[in-house]
Amino acid sequence: MENKKSKVKYEEGEEEEEETKMEKFYSLLRSYREARDRRRKQLDELEKNDKKKRKKKLTEQETTSSSWVPSFEREDFTTEVVFRRPPLVLPAPIERSSKANKKEPHKDDALDLKLAL
Length: 117
What we know:
The protein has three helices and no strands. The longest helix is centred in the first third of the chain and has 63 residues, at 2-64. Helix content is 62%, strand content 0%. It has helices spanning 2-64, 75-78, 98-103. The chain is elongated. It has 117 residues and is an all-alpha fold. It has a domain at 1-63.
C-alpha cells in the first residue's frame, strides 16, 4: 500500500509542477503579446508623426515656391547659338549597292569571310 500512496503523492507533485510550468509558459506568452502590441502602437505613432511632418513640409514648400511659369518669345530662338567646341565630324556612310556585294567583295575588306570546304 505504501507504494501506491507514494506513487499517488509523486503524481500529485508532478501535476503541480506541470501546472506551474504551464502557468509560466502562458504568462510568458501574455507578456510577449503585450510587448509586441506596445511596440506596434509606438511604430504606428511614429509613422503618423512622420506623415504629419511630411505634409507640413509639402505645404510649406507649396507656399514658398514661386508661381512663375516660363514663357518663350520668337526672339529667343532667332539668336545665333555659339558652341563651346566644334561639333563632331562623322565620316559619311559608305553606300554599297546590293548587286555589287553579291558579285564582288569590296576591296577595302580586310577579312575574307567566305567558307571554303
